[in-house]
Automatic annotation (TrEMBL):
This is Magnesium transporter. The lineage of its organism: Bacteria, Bacillati, Actinomycetota, Actinomycetes, Micrococcales. Signal peptide: none annotated. Keywords: CBS domain. InterPro entries: CBS_dom, CBS_dom_sf, Mg_transptr_MgtE_intracell_dom, MgtE_N_sf, MgtE_transporter, SH3_actinomycetes. CDD domains: CBS_pair_Mg_transporter (cd04606). It comes from Galactobacter valiniphilus. It holds the Pfam family SH3_actinomycetes. Residues 284-352, 353-410 form the CBS domain. GO terms for cellular component: membrane. GO terms for molecular function: magnesium ion transmembrane transporter activity. Transmembrane segments: none annotated.
Length: 433
């Protein structure tokens, strides 16, 4: 049964189902429409993240039931990407963390939630605000102070709409998103809002998200940071992604950032910057899993288990003579993780080496790299220099980044999906209302 009153924060992240129990997607926000002074704002729809991480609009006329456990919608849902209209406001993205003034003269506060009430005609209206008294602090994941109160919709007034909305609440409510999904959310924002949110992220999280954004947005965000923080963020990025980003910057800015980075991190990035674009050397990571031939299977499995190793790199161990930092000693071959899992823990990895797979030259072009990965069903491939030393490994995701068009994140379909999960490839569906 649907609740007659519910707070939006309790809805965020809930699954949205059709009446038969098939999952449509996940609720990410609610859309309210302001109707002028002295009148309640109305909730006109919800924003649902569907398959492919696309966010679409579901009008409230399609919402049959809404509670703190689940949301049920019926009818056709238009799969065109949600685009906010002028009079519409996103609750989680734009109302939460907004500053308000109490009309009784008791001071100011910050909105942390809004309560919706279902009226007799079935419409959902904004009824109450959950407000924390005082003014918001600054800085990532700030500690909030002040007591909280629930007030009626007509007991507060919002501050100047041009005042930037705090970004901490948005970050907290989207903290569970994977970096690529968080990057998608940033990509859909206007530039001002994108910079506000990006600036509030902690360095390691910002580094993960930057790697998933288009080049121009990466450059804009990095350039908005002070130089020392920008260098810290670059240190948190994968060396190949940091090199790609730095290559988009003016030479003086690039060099000043490299000078501020830790020498070891800067050295890895400088080596990658020496290669021409679209070569194996320019797209590889210089820090794959590398072991000497005497290392055991147990040691190899422990190495690929490390949290910082990506799934693509964890599928392969590269065996080399010391030194084991790239460029290594003589490259001997690779061991696939399946072979490690089939072998006894004390077995030396040198006895399991696949010597038939020829490594890539660091000067190989992207077409040669992609052919090798596709031909041998690899997630990563070794890259050596002209002396036969391992200088890195190129992964399938590195290749995709170079093969996909620059604007691939903006591509979308005009499909219409039924909440039963069946897709109807039509360009027209339900209208906003």
């Amino acid at each position: 049964m649907s609740s007659s009153k519910i707070f939006v924060a309790r809805l965020l992240g809930l699954d949205v189902f059709d009446p038969l129990g098939d999952r449509l997607g996940r609720l990410r926000d609610a859309v309210v429409l302001e109707r002028g002074p002295g009148r309640r704002a109305m909730c006109v729809g919800i924003v649902v993240e569907v398959l492919g991480k696309k966010r679409v609009f579901v009008p409230m006329t399609r919402v049959q039931s809404m509670s703190s456990e689940q949301v049920i919608a019926s009818g056709l849902v238009n799969l065109r990407r949600f685009q906010q209209r002028g009079a519409e406001t996103l609750v989680a993205a734009q109302v939460f963390d907004r500053r308000v003034t109490f009309l009784d003269g008791s001071g100011q506060g910050v909105v942390e939630d809004i309560g919706l009430i279902r009226q007799a005609n079935g419409d959902w209206a904004v009824d109450e605000y959950f407000v924390r008294r005082g003014t918001p602090g600054r800085g990532p994941f700030r500690r909030r102070g002040g007591n909280t109160v629930v007030v009626s919709w007509n007991e507060i007034v919002f501050g100047d709409v041009s005042e930037p909305q705090g970004a901490a609440q948005f970050i907290e409510s989207h903290d569970e998103l994977k970096p690529a999904d968080f990057a998608d959310a940033l990509h859909e924002m206007d530039e001002k809002r994108r910079l506000e949110v990006a600036t509030e992220l902690q360095d390691d999280r910002l580094a993960e998200v930057l790697q998933e954004l288009p080049d121009d947005e990466q450059v804009a965000i990095l350039s908005s940071l002070d130089t020392e923080r920008a260098a810290d963020v670059l240190e948190e990025m994968d060396p190949d992604d940091a090199a790609d980003l730095l290559s988009e910057l003016p030479e003086t800015q690039k060099e000043s950032l490299l000078q501020l980075m830790e020498p070891e991190d800067a050295e890895d990035v400088r080596r990658l910057l020496e290669y021409e674009e679209n070569t194996a050397g320019s797209m590889m990571t210089p820090v794959p899993v590398i072991l000497p031939p005497e290392a055991t299977v147990a040691e190899a499995l422990a190495s690929v288990r490390r949290e910082e190793i990506s799934p693509a790199l964890a599928a392969t161990v590269y065996v080399c003579r010391p030194p084991l930092e790239t460029p290594t000693g003589r490259y001997l071959g690779l061991v696939h993780i399946q072979e490690l899992l089939r072998s006894a823990p004390p077995e030396p990895v040198g006895k399991l080496v696949d010597k038939d797979l020829e490594p890539l030259s660091d000067l190989a072009d992207v077409q040669e790299v992609s052919r090798m990965l596709a031909t041998y069903d690899l997630t990563s491939a070794p890259v050596v220099n002209d002396e036969g030393r391992l200088v890195g490994a190129v992964t399938v995701d590195d290749v995709l980044d170079h093969l996909l068009p620059d604007d691939w994140r903006s591509h979308e379909d005009d499909a219409v999906v039924r909440p039963t999960g069946r897709t109807n490839l039509r360009s027209k569906g339900v209208k906003r209302g």
